[in-house]
Write a structure and sequence with these properties.
The chain has 254 residues and is an alpha/beta fold. The protein contains twelve helices and eight strands. The chain has one domain: TIM Barrel (Alpha-Beta Barrel). It has an eight-stranded parallel beta barrel with strand order 1-2-3-4-5-6-7-8, surrounded by four helices.
Length: 254
C-alpha cells in the first residue's frame, strides 16, 4: 500500500533561515513518524541548501513552482536543472496564488511538461474560487484539469502526476471553514471521473488526489477518512511543528 502523501508549502516563510532551521530541528525529532509518509517540504528557494541537508532521511525537497523553460537566458528564474541540482523531487505547479498573479492553464501545461522532462514530479493544483447552486464550479474544475493537462497523454507521465484539489475559498481560513468531508468525497469522485476522461480508467485510478485548504490537527482525520484523498497540501499549519505532527499522525492512524 502506497504511503500517504504530505506536502508542506512554506510559501515565503519563515522570515529567517534560523527560524527554518529551528523548525526542522523540531520536526526531525519525529523523523520516525514522518518516514511513514511520503513527506515533501517546499521552502523558499534561498533556504534550499540548508533545508535539503536537514531533512535527509525523513523528507524530500520540493519546489513551490517550476519555470516553464529549461534553456535560454531568463533573468530571475529558477530552471528545472537548478532545482534538480538541489535534489528537488516534486514541484507545486499552478498554485492558486500563482494563478492569481496571471498564470493561465496554458502556462501551467507548459510547466507540467517541463517538470516531466526534468524528472520532477508535478503536483498540479486546481480549485474553484467560489461555488454556486448551479454547479458552475464543476465545469470550472473540469476545464482546469483539461487545459492544464493539455498535451500530456503518456501513461508514464499520468502515473507520476499528483493532483492537489484546493478550493480557493477554503485556503488560509479557520479549520471550521475548510471543505466538509462529505463535499470533499464528492469532489474526489468528480476529479477522478474527469481524469478518467483524459487518461482512461487505469491511469486515472493511480493518480493521487490531495486536499489543501485550512487543514490542521483538528480536522485532518475526518478530511482524510472516507473521502478518497491520498494526503494533504498544507500551508500555514506546516510552519507549526505541533499542528504538522498532528496532521501526520492523522494520516498514519486513519
Ligand atoms: C495553500 O495555500 O496551499 C494552503 C493549503 O494553505 P492553508 O493550509 O494555509 O489553507
Amino acid at each position: 500500500m502506497a504511503k500517504p502523501i504530505l506536502v508542506a508549502n512554506w510559501k515565503n516563510h519563515p522570515s529567517s533561515l534560523k527560524e527554518a532551521a529551528d523548525l526542522l530541528t523540531t520536526l526531525s525529532r519525529r523523523s520516525m513518524l514522518y518516514k511513514k509518509l511520503s513527506l515533501y517540504i517546499a521552502p523558499p528557494y534561498t533556504y534550499f541548501e540548508s533545508v535539503s541537508k536537514r531533512i535527509k532521511g525523513f523528507a524530500n525537497l520540493a519546489s513551490q513552482d517550476v519555470f516553464f523553460s529549461a534553456d535560454g537566458p531568463h533573468t530571475g528564474s529558477v530552471t528545472p536543472d537548478i532545482l534538480k541540482s538541489f535534489g528537488v523531487k516534486l514541484a507545486i505547479i499552478g498554485h492558486s496564488e500563482r494563478r492569481a498573479l496571471g498564470e493561465t492553464n496554458e502556462v501551467v501545461a507548459t510547466k507540467l511538461k517541463t517538470a516531466f522532462i526534468a524528472g520532477i514530479v508535478p503536483l498540479l493544483c486546481i480549485g474553484e474560487t467560489s461555488r454556486d447552486d448551479e454547479g458552475n464550479h464543476l465545469q470550472f474544475i473540469q476545464d482546469q484539469l483539461k487545459f492544464s493537462l493539455e498535451g500530456i497523454r503518456r501513461k508514464e507521465d499520468a502515473e507520476k502526476l499528483i493532483i492537489a484539489y484546493e478550493p480557493v475559498w477554503a485556503i488560509g481560513k479557520r479549520a471550521s471553514e475548510a471543505m466538509s468531508p462529505t463535499d470533499l468525497a464528492e469532489m474526489v469522485i468528480f476529479i477522478k471521473k474527469a481524469l478518467t476522461d483524459i487518461f482512461g480508467r487505469d491511469a486515472a485510478d493511480v493518480i493521487p488526489v490531495l486536499y489543501g485548504g485550512s487543514v490542521d490537527g483538528s480536522n485532518a482525520e475526518p478530511l482524510y477518512k472516507e473521502t478518497g484523498i491520498r494526503g494533504f497540501l498544507v500551508g500555514r499549519a506546516s510552519l507549526k511543528s505541533k499542528e504538522f505532527c498532528e496532521i501526520a499522525e492523522a494520516l498514519i492512524s486513519s
